[in-house]
């Protein structure tokens, strides 16, 4: 399915205001409410919309510390990669895990209360991840830009 200009406007609005009512969305993209609803349903069915979430405030939830962890594995065999990825999925403090091309095999985004809490996460989880040969952690000092909106 190809996206037309109206689909793109719908996706742009929904990325920034996921709780917008169908009536308000239809008005903003210049469609009837029923046509707008059908388009949103189609965008969901076609996989352009993965789901709707609430973006939480990490500071309010006492998780203001973001740490990026570069992981180098001991090997590239499928079993090593699969074991690592299975284990990462079980760590609640890891928000993102990316298989990388470059100097590290994986890049993790971890949230913590502070450096002590990160030390706990490191001891309990990160140091026990299978296949890890090397780990390098970098603490974010300040978030300059953060968005979940993909240009459409």
Description:
The protein is an alpha+beta fold and 152 residues long. The protein is built from 5 helices and 4 strands. The protein has helices at residues 5-16, 22-28, 33-45, 78-88, 115-124, and strands at residues 65-73, 94-99, 106-112, 132-139. InterPro entries: ArsR-like_HTH, AsnC-type_HTH_dom, Dimeric_a/b-barrel, Tscrpt_reg_AsnC-like, Tscrpt_reg_AsnC/Lrp_C, Tscrpt_reg_HTH_AsnC-type_CS, WH-like_DNA-bd_sf, WH_DNA-bd_sf. One of its GO terms (molecular function) is sequence-specific DNA binding.
Number of helical segments? 5
Biggest sheet architecture: 4 strands, antiparallel
**Helix/strand/pairing category:** alpha+beta
- What's the multimeric state? single chain
Assigned CATH architecture of the largest domain:
2-Layer Sandwich
Spatial extent as radius of gyration: 20 Å
The beta-strand count equals: 4
Write the layout of secondary structure elements.
Blueprint: H1 5-16, H2 22-28, H3 33-45, E1 65-73, H4 78-88, E2 94-99, E3 106-112, H5 115-124, E4 132-139
Helix pairs in contact: 2-3
């Amino acid at each position: 399915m190809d996206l037309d200009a109206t689909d793109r406007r719908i996706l742009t609005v929904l990325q920034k205001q996921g709780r917008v009512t169908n009536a308000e969305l239809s008005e903003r993209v210049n469609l009837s409410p029923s046509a707008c609803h059908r388009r949103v349903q189609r965008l969901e069915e076609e996989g352009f919309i993965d789901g709707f979430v609430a973006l939480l405030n990490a500071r309010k939830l006492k998780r203001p510390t973001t740490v990026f962890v570069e992981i180098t594995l001991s090997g590239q065999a499928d079993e090593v990669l699969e074991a690592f990825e299975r284990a990462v999925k079980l760590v609640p403090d890891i928000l993102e895990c990316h298989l990388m091309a470059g100097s590290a095999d994986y890049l993790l985004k971890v949230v913590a209360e502070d450096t002590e809490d990160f030390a706990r996460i490191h001891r309990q989880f990160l140091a026990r991840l299978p296949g890890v040969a090397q780990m390098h952690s970098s603490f974010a000092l300040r978030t300059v830009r953060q968005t979940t909106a993909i240009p459409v």
